[in-house]
C-alpha cells in the first residue's frame, strides 16, 4: 500500500493535463472572448457617491430574446485607485489564531471537516464539496493538524478535471463551486507544494479562460460577470476575483472591481450589463444592480432592492411576491465585496453602502435570510457592525460558509460603528 500511495499523487497530477487534451478536441473554446471595455477612472474611489440616473444612459432590454449591452467608455488599466495593503484572500493566520476552538460554530465547523466527502463535481451547481473542503482548510489553519491539510491536498487533486465537458457544464455551477477550492488552497499553503501547487495554478488559468456552454448560456467567468447582472454574474464575479487574488493578477482584479462597482450602481464605472424587464428599476433608462437610496416606485420605497432578481417573481407589485433569488444573488455579491475589501478596495462602502441597503430592504419586506443563506448575515454584520438576526450554527451556502465562526467575533468587535439593521 505504501508503494501505491507513493505513486498516487504524481499520477493524479497528470489527470488534468490529459483531460485538457481530451476536451480540446471536443471544445476548442478555451480563450477569453472579447468583453465590453471599462471606463477611464480619473480619481481614487475612497468613498462612494451614488448618482441615480447618471452615466451613459441606455435603454433597458425589454425583449429578452434579443438583448444588447449598454455602451461604455474605453478602459484605462493605469487609472489610479484607492488600494490598501493586501491582507490575505479570506483570512490571515493572525486572525485565525484569535478565533475560538469551542462553541456551537466551532463544533459545527469541526463536524463538517470530519465528514466524509464524495468526489467533487464542479459540473453540479448544487455540489457542496467545495464548502466542506473549505471547512477542512479552516480547521487545519486553526489547529495545525496535518491530517486536515492532507485532506485538503487530496480534495484539490480530485477537483482538477471535475468540471466535466465544457460543452455541457453550466457557468453557474463552475462559479458557485470554485471559490471554496481557491480559498482552501490558500489556507493550506498549497503554493509550497512543488508539484500540486503549480498544477493547481495551471488548472485555475484554464478554468477562467474556458467557455462553458451548459445551462444559462455560453460564458467564461469574466464574460458572465460583465454581462449578467443577476445571481449568475455575482457568483461568476466571486470566482473570478478569488482566482485573480490567488494568481496575483492585479490587472484583471482591477477590472473585476470596476465591474462590481458598476453593478452596485455606479454606471460611470461600468454599464455593460444586459438587463431584463425594468419594472423594478427605479430609473428604467439607467438600470443598476441595486436601486439607489430613496428610490420609489408608485410611492413605495424600493431603495436597496435588486431589480434583476425581484422581477424573477413577476413585474412590480406591492407587497412583493417572494423570491429566493435576491438572497441568492447576494451570496455572490457579498463574497465579491469581502474579497475585494481584503485586497484593499472599499467595496463594502461603495454606492452609499449598497449591500447594507440591500439587506435592509429585504428585512423591511420581512424576507430574512433562511436555509443556505444563513451564513450571509454574519459576514454582513461583520462588515458594517450591523445587528441583523444571525443563527449559529449557520448552514453553509452555495459558495461559502462557516462565517458564524470566521466572522462572528469580528462582528461583535465592530458593533457600534454606526450601521445597524434599521439603517
The gist of it:
With 423 residues, this protein is mainly alpha-helical. The chain has helices at 2-26, 93-96, 104-113, 129-143, 146-159, 171-187, 196-209, 221-227, 231-247, 250-264, 307-310, 325-342, 350-364, 376-384, 403-406, 408-414; strands spanning 296-297, 300-301.
Please supply descriptive tags for the structure shown above.
two-stranded antiparallel sheet; globular; 2 strands; mainly alpha; 423 residues; disordered N terminus; disordered C terminus; 16 helices
Topology (elements, then pairings):
Elements: H1 2-26, H2 93-96, H3 104-113, H4 129-143, H5 146-159, H6 171-187, H7 196-209, H8 221-227, H9 231-247, H10 250-264, E1 296-297, E2 300-301, H11 307-310, H12 325-342, H13 350-364, H14 376-384, H15 403-406, H16 408-414
Antiparallel strand pairs: 1-2
Helix pairs in contact: 3-4, 4-5, 4-6, 6-9, 7-9, 8-9, 9-10, 9-12, 12-14, 14-16
Largest sheet: 2 strands, antiparallel
The amount of helix comes to 40-55%
Tally the beta strands.
2
Shape: globular
Q: Please tell me how large the radius of gyration is.
A: 21 Å
Q: Structural class from helices and strands?
A: mainly alpha
- Please state roughly what percent of the residues sit in beta strands, choosing from under 5%, 5-15%, 15-25%, 25-35%, 35-45% or over 45%: under 5%
Distance, first to last CA: 61 Å
Count of helical segments?
16
Low-pLDDT parts are: 1-84, 411-423
N-to-C series of helices and strands: HHHHHHHHHHEEHHHHHH
Determine the mean pLDDT.
82
How are strands sequenced across the largest beta sheet? 1-2
Amino acid at each position: 500500500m505504501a508503494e501505491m500511495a507513493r505513486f498516487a499523487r504524481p499520477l493524479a497530477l497528470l489527470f488534468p493535463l490529459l483531460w485538457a487534451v481530451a476536451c480540446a478536441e471536443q471544445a476548442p473554446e478555451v480563450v477569453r472572448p472579447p468583453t465590453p471595455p471599462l471606463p477611464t477612472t480619473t480619481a481614487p474611489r475612497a468613498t462612494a457617491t451614488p448618482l441615480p440616473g447618471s452615466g451613459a444612459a441606455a435603454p433597458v432590454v425589454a425583449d429578452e430574446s434579443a438583448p444588447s449591452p449598454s455602451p461604455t467608455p474605453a478602459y484605462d488599466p493605469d487609472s489610479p485607485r484607492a488600494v490598501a495593503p493586501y491582507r490575505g484572500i479570506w483570512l490571515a493566520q493572525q486572525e485565525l489564531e484569535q478565533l475560538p476552538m469551542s462553541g456551537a460554530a466551532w463544533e459545527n465547523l469541526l463536524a463538517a471537516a470530519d465528514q466524509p466527502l464524495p468526489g467533487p463535481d464542479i459540473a453540479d451547481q448544487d455540489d457542496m464539496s467545495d464548502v466542506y473542503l473549505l471547512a477542512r482548510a479552516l480547521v487545519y489553519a486553526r489547529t495545525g493538524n496535518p491530517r486536515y491539510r492532507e485532506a485538503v491536498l487530496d480534495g484539490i487533486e480530485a477537483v482538477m478535471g471535475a468540471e466535466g465537458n465544457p460543452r455541457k457544464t453550466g457557468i453557474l455551477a463552475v462559479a458557485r463551486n470554485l471559490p471554496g477550492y481557491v480559498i482552501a488552497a490558500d489556507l493550506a499553503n498549497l503554493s509550497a507544494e512543488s508539484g500540486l501547487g503549480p498544477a493547481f495554478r495551471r488548472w485555475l488559468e484554464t478554468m477562467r479562460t474556458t467557455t462553458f456552454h451548459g445551462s444559462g448560456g455560453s460564458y467564461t467567468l469574466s464574460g458572465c460577470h460583465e454581462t449578467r447582472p443577476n445571481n449568475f454574474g455575482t457568483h461568476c464575479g466571486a470566482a473570478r476575483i478569488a482566482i485573480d487574488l490567488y494568481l496575483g493578477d492585479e490587472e484583471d482584479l482591477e477590472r473585476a472591481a470596476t465591474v462590481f462597482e458598476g453593478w452596485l450602481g455606479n454606471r460611470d464605472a461600468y454599464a455593460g450589463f444586459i438587463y431584463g424587464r425594468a419594472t423594478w428599476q427605479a430609473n428604467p433608462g439607467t438600470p443598476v444592480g441595486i436601486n439607489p437610496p430613496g428610490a420609489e416606485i408608485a410611492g413605495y420605497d424600493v431603495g436597496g432592492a435588486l431589480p434583476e432578481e425581484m422581477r424573477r417573481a413577476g413585474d412590480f407589485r406591492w407587497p412583493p411576491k417572494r423570491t429566493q433569488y435576491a438572497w441568492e444573488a447576494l451570496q455572490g455579491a457579498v463574497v465579491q465585496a469581502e474579497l475585494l475589501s481584503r485586497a484593499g478596495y472599499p467595496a463594502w462602502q461603495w454606492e452609499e453602502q449598497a449591500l447594507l441597503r440591500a439587506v435592509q430592504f429585504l428585512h423591511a419586506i420581512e424576507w430574512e435570510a433562511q436555509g443556505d443563506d444563513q451564513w450571509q448575515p454574519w459576514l454582513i454584520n461583520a462588515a458594517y457592525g450591523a445587528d441583523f438576526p444571525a443563527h449559529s450554527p449557520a448552514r453553509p451556502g452555495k459558495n461559502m460558509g462557516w462565517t458564524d465562526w470566521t466572522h462572528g467575533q469580528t462582528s461583535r468587535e465592530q458593533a457600534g460603528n454606526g450601521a445597524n439593521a434599521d439603517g
